[in-house]
Amino acid sequence: MAFFCLKLYILANLSNHEINNPVGFLTSNLEMLADYRKHCIEILSLQEEITSPHRPSEQERIILIQRLERMKKEVDFDYIQKETASLLEDCLLGANRIRNIVTDLMSFTHAKDIDWQLVDVNKLLQKTVKLAFNEIKFQTTIQWDLNELDLIYSSEGRLGQAFLSLLMNAVHSIRQDGLITLSTRMKQEDDQKIAIIEISDNGHGIAEKDLPFIFEPFYTTKEKGKGTGLGLHMVDNVVNNHSGKIEVNSTLGEGTCFRILLPYKDKQRI
């Protein structure tokens, strides 16, 4: 029972900041959609006035049409129509991520219930960055070096959480002029194909004395109250559950690189 409670405690604390990211993403998008809705209602109201059976004189109608055209240009109505579809798609993406986190939380002690499927790791990384963009955009530049990968049989929800945790660690390690590099490649090792995913940053780095302990639960180098010491422990569990391994290189004052190596397996639960 104690071990069961510890698992739930770990995921509950970790999921808190993971959920906050897509929630912030959703809030930002919904605020923008609300603003677009206001402009659309103003335009529709003016169009109804122009086409009303009780419309004003022809001269007044021409003035209203001119006003309508000016309004469309001022709010960039064509752009709003295109952007609305994109914002709604992104909202669904954020909502699905929250649902997956909650599902994983509920099924943490029942690993067989987690959905495994063929996953495009490059696309998953791109989705993860998109969900964390609200925190990334103010201080960090993302540099991409994605190479072609075969689809890998994995738990997309768990793998996405691991990527998000590493990404947020990178963001939080950067004070200004940040650069985070996301790279992928595939290598052949004997008769085994391996996907390699690297998340590196130019942040403050990790002291050599701390490196042997960073994957232990509750071990953190962050200031008191700013970290639970659970994120990297979860990442390590996810990678191990995929029969992979995780490596880290770090230099104080220069940055950190986390490298995940995932072997390609048959379509079966490992």
Strand order of the largest sheet: 2-4-5-7-6
User: What is the CATH topology of the largest domain?
Assistant: Heat Shock Protein 90
Number of discrete helical segments:
7
Low-confidence stretches: 1-15, 107-113
The topology string of helices and strands comes to HHHEHHEEHEEHEE
Terminal CA distance: 25 Å
Q: What would your notes on this structure say?
A:
- This protein has two domains: 1-114; 117-263, Heat Shock Protein 90, CATH 3.30.565.
- Helices cover 52% and strands 19% of the residues.
- 24% of the residues are buried.
- It is of the alpha+beta class.
What attributes does this structure have?
270 residues; alpha+beta; Heat Shock Protein 90; 2 domains; five-stranded mixed beta sheet; 7 strands; 19% strand; disordered N terminus
Q: How is this structure best summarized?
A:
The chain is of the alpha+beta class and 270 residues long. The chain is 52% helix and 19% strand.
Task: Present the secondary structure layout.
Layout: H1 2-51, H2 58-75, H3 77-106, E1 117-119, H4 121-131, H5 133-136, E2 140-146, E3 152-154, H6 156-172, E4 178-189, E5 192-201, H7 231-241, E6 245-251, E7 255-263
Parallel strand pairs: 2-4
Antiparallel strand pairs: 1-3, 4-5, 5-7, 6-7
Helix pairs in contact: 1-2, 1-3, 2-3, 4-6, 6-7
